[in-house]
Amino acid sequence: MIGCTAARHGIVFLDEVDKISSKKGGQFQRDVGGEGVQQSLLKMMEGAVIKVPDLSGSGKKTIDVDTTNILFIFSGAFSGLTNIIQRRTNIKPFGFTSETPEDKEGANATDTIHQSDTTDHEKDEILRAVEVDDLVNFGMIPEFIGRIPVFAVFENMTTEMLIKILKEPRNALIPQYETLLEMDGAKLKFEEEALVAVAEKAKESGTGARALRSRLENILLEPMYEAPNSDIEEIIITKDTVENKTPPVYVQRSKDLVVSTDKFVIKQTEPPSMKVMNPPQSQA
Question: What pTM was computed for the model?
Fold first, then answer.
């Protein structure tokens, strides 16, 4: 019961809450996981005693948990919410200064593309203007949104943030690949321009940090096959390797090997100096 008492003053974090938005469809279309799930969460959010199955036993027993003092945090991507906010905040001009259809047809196509293409900073500014009506139009029921007092917007990841994700965390991706190649006797090195190119490629995909692993897998697929049972000492990933898919730079351990010069770089190594010891003098 000690754990149950502590749980009554805890925090519940529910991710992907935008997936339970109600879908507006036809009369015979079922709204699976939409409005019904939101209705079932209302009682839990407003503070009530709910019955939770006891998983430690047979599962038939239940434990009463009071959710009055539990903090609920909901998060989600809410893809398409920016379009709803733009439709609400867009004020069309009228009168003598309004733009006629002839002016729109004569506009430059490049200008139209740049006007429709919003940067990440502009998307962040649009999301900061979110209101309850926008979330209702997205598919959340008013009763559910009304029980959430505070709304916060996370900014889109920048290139610098993605580079930090590649290098700094304890289980970062680049140290993982460095350890894998060290097991084969090779050292992995990324140039700074290559890291920037990887981060920009992942940013263009629109999936954020999730795209970093797939980008690295495509880049390091060939080196991970070349390194085992070879004389490769160092693998250098350049900007051209990321952008133009050119082979990485391979550094060999010895200069006596005959290899292709367009693929390998021979590292000039000097043998260690040998000490000549004086022979022992014979005693007369």
Answer: 0.63
